[in-house]
């Protein structure tokens, strides 16, 4: 499972999401893809999803959230999916 985090400079929600995803990566088999919003791929994703706030979060390429990362909702999604949980 790949979680894409499109982040902007000086964004405290982005920094918080990076911390949360690092913690989840220690528990779930996920790949975290950090994409700067001002990069070519970032601009493409922002243009396609038009988030009201950063970070923009995609799970396996599908819109998940924009703004503060809903940790409980993400954990529930990761738990419900057939993924290997690290011990």
Structure summary:
The chain is of the alpha+beta class. It has helices at 12-25, 40-49, 71-80; strands at 2-7, 31-36, 56-59, 62-66.
Keywords:
alpha+beta, globular
Report on this model:
With 87 residues, the chain is α+β, with helices and mostly antiparallel strands. It has a single domain (2-80), classed as Glutaredoxin, CATH 3.40.30. Helices cover 39% and strands 24% of the residues. It contains three helices and four strands; from the N terminus they run βαβαββα. It has helices spanning 12-25, 40-49, 71-80, and strands at residues 2-7, 31-36, 56-59, 62-66. It has a four-stranded mixed beta sheet with strand order 2-1-3-4, sandwiched between helices. Strand 1 (2-7), helix 1 and strand 2 form a beta-alpha-beta unit. It is globular and about 30 Å long. The two termini are 18 Å apart.
**What's the quaternary structure here?**
single chain
- Number of helical elements: 3
Derived structural class: alpha+beta
Number of domains: 1
In the CATH scheme, the class would be Alpha Beta
CATH architecture: 3-Layer(aba) Sandwich
Unreliable sequence segments? none
